[in-house]
Amino acid sequence: MTDAGNVVGRTAVALDWWDRVPPELDWASVERRVGFRFPADYQEFMARFPSGIFRDVVRIHNPVQDQRSLAGFEEDLDRMLTGVEALQEYDDTYAPFPEPRGVIPFAGDLAGGSLFWLPWTPDPDRWHVVRLNRSSHWTRTKRSMTAVMLELATSRSERNVLGWDLSAKDQVFEPFDQDS
């Protein structure tokens, strides 16, 4: 197992998640559709987790799970990028994708914030995570997406990318209801 696979496995164990996701779509097709390459650790993560909610704090859509999840991913992508674009009028910290080095969203927190990759290098496997909270404040990490998700899965304090005390949150993953 790769290092990312180990981190994904540790995240799954922390959330008591034992299933895997059989993808209906292939990564190359999805990447052509959205216009960027996904980091390898994200792909490993999505091989394990379907679209759902982590610890009742972060929502994520698995773009290769099925057409419905891809549509959810694209809706979130468009909404979050529109927010970054609007924010640029007041704060030009980060540009939105597809601008050069523009941030690319991959998840949203349930308080209205967003998690993004910062493509500071052409190699997506080296991208860091940045967070935009609903008050338009940016937090930059030097961690990968899987490292951030493991942090959120195991946090029992405010020491996480959200800065929220997660000690009272159950360590569970809730997949979206595919029937609704």
Write a structural description:
The N and C termini lie far apart (35 Å). The chain has five helices and seven strands; from the N terminus they run αααββαββββαβ. The longest helix has 21 residues, at 67-87. With 180 residues, it is of the alpha+beta class. Helix 1 packs parallel to helix 3 (40-48) and helix 1 (3-14) packs parallel to helix 5 (145-154). It has one domain (3-175).
Q: Report strand order across the widest sheet.
A: 6-5-4-3-2-1-7
Average predicted local confidence, pLDDT? 93
Structural class based on helices, strands and sheet pairing: alpha+beta
Give me the Rg, rounded.
15 Å
Shape: globular
- Beta-strand portion reads 15-25%
Largest sheet: 7 strands, antiparallel
Secondary structure tally: strands:
7
Instruction: Please give the domain count.
Output: 1
**SSE string:** HHHEEHEEEEHE
Q: Tally the helices.
A: 5
Q: TL;DR?
A:
The chain is an alpha+beta fold.
Observed structural traits:
alpha+beta, seven-stranded antiparallel β-sheet
How are the SSEs placed, and which strands pair?
Layout: H1 3-14, H2 27-34, H3 40-48, E1 52-54, E2 58-60, H4 67-87, E3 104-109, E4 114-118, E5 128-132, E6 138-140, H5 145-154, E7 173-175
